[in-house]
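Structure ticket #2291
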Amino acid sequence: MSTPSGAGYPHFAARVGTGFALHLPDGDTAPLVLTECTTSGPGSFSLIFKAGPRAPIEQANYQLSADGFGPEPVFLVPIGQRPNDAQFPLEYQAIFNSVPPPGASP
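Resolution: structure written out below.
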């Protein structure tokens, strides 16, 4: 699976450690940093981001952007707090899965 623009696992794997902007409804942004990109099989991968304190705590589709990327909608789920990191106290996960078309080999 990929984002609407076609960004998939290789695109994100190359961006681990990169800053992203999470676009807030009020027009402002909250900083994110991609900390992990792991694959779990063909067409499936997950992303872990650490997030700044202004990031919302609700799971939802959010517009993300970075240099050369987006903005793209990505469904983010808050998965934890980072109490020892005042700059990035929240953690989010995005999971991408795709189902192969009927008759496709795995």
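Closing remark: Residues 9-13 form the longest helix (5 residues).
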